[in-house]
């Protein structure tokens, strides 16, 4: 009989993360095989993602950054003394474009699951904006968030602006996106605004190279997941024996990334074996591409009122301005 998924703690895996182990075991047992894309972002994965954002083919970052820059005067007209709260702040590269445009913002709160990145980026921002009250919350913002008591009273008195750039919302399923937007509404409170970056590109000729670049950086990013599983969970994936695949699914309006096994192979992980048939794939990421009206409906169903949106000059990358 198949054995139950027991998490082992052999002495050579001191950092074994039980949630990672469980999700990988479950995902490899599923049909089709899948692993949530959140596990891409170990140290190396975050480095590779930074490299992706600099690729010619990856239009998203460049477009959104130019769009944010072009909105300087628009942001400058918002009420003074606001509290900016960023979800999944990562390296906070785009944050200065908002903070620097706003009229004397009072505070900035960065929320990220990776404490490492969080500490670094928050320190940098504090140096750059010495007047700003800067806070870091190490938390998983896909689960319900609560303010630490020491912060809540202050922030609730300031005009609140949630910031979720990068089209990261596209990596959630639509159900997860609604749950996130609903949670953000609760967390930010009545009267708050949310500025969200959303890619609506439907053109395959732009999408495929953006997710399968000529230099193979995205392929390395995708395969790094297997390297991470080997290192942290003691698996024996041969990462080079999997092909990086990026496909556009117009029915779901999403780009999918997979790792394809060109020949049959078996992988061992935590006492179990998982067999890949010839041509079988491991689904590692969805990146939903919401056209304007589609995203507005999604936001409305989560309790937000779409007030404005701005489109990039040369792509379908948008910034949505929502009010609670
Ligand atoms: C972080 N996220 C918005 C990226 C995206 O475009 O979905 C992750 C990524 N995957 C492949 N390339 C970049």
Automatic annotation (TrEMBL):
Every Histidine-specific methyltransferase SAM-dependent domain range: 21-323
Per UniProt, the keywords (alphabetical) are:
Methyltransferase, Transferase
What are the recorded GO MF terms, alphabetically?
L-histidine N(alpha)-methyltransferase activity
GO:BP terms for this protein? methylation
Give the EC number(s) under which this enzyme is classified. Answer: 2.1.1.44
Q: Which InterPro entries match?
A: EgtD, EgtD_Methyltrsf_superfamily, MeTrfase_dom, MeTrfase_EgtD-like, SAM-dependent_MTases_sf
Question: What is the protein's given name?
Answer: Histidine-specific methyltransferase EgtD
Which gene holds the coding sequence for this protein? egtD
């Amino acid at each position: 009989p198949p054995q139950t998924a027991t998490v082992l703690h052999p002495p050579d895996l001191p950092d074994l993360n039980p949630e990672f182990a469980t999700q990988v075991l479950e995902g490899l047992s599923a049909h089709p095989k899948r692993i949530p894309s959140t596990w891409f972002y170990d140290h190396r994965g975050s480095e590779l993602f930074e490299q992706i954002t600099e690729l010619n083919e990856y239009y998203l970052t460049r477009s959104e950054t130019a769009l944010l820059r072009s909105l300087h005067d628009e942001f400058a007209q918002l009420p003074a003394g606001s509290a900016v709260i960023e979800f999944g702040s990562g390296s906070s590269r785009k944050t200065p474009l908002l903070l620097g445009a706003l009229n004397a913002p009072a505070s900035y709160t960065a929320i990220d699951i990776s404490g490492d990145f969080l500490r670094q980026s928050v320190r940098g921002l504090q140096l750059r904006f010495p007047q700003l009250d800067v806070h870091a919350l190490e938390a998983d913002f896909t689960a319900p968030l609560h303010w630490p008591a020491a912060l809540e009273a202050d922030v609730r008195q300031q005009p609140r602006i949630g910031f979720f750039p990068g089209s990261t919302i596209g990596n959630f399923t639509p159900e997860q996106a609604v749950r996130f937007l609903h949670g953000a509404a609760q967390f930010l409170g009545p009267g708050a605004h949310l500025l969200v970056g959303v890619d609506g590109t439907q053109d395959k000729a732009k999408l495929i190279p953006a997710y399968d670049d000529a230099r193979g950086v995205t392929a390395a990013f995708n395969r790094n997941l297997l390297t991470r599983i080997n290192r942290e969970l003691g698996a024996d994936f041969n990462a080079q024996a999997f092909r990086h695949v990026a496909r556009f699914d117009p029915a779901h309006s999403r780009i999918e990334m997979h790792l394809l096994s060109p020949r049959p192979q078996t992988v061992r992980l935590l006492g179990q074996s998982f067999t890949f048939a010839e041509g079988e794939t491991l689904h590692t990421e969805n990146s939903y591409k919401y056209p304007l009206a589609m995203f507005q409906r999604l936001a409305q169903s989560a309790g937000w009122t779409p007030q404005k949106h701005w489109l990039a000059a040369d792509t379908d990358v948008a910034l949505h301005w929502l009010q609670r």
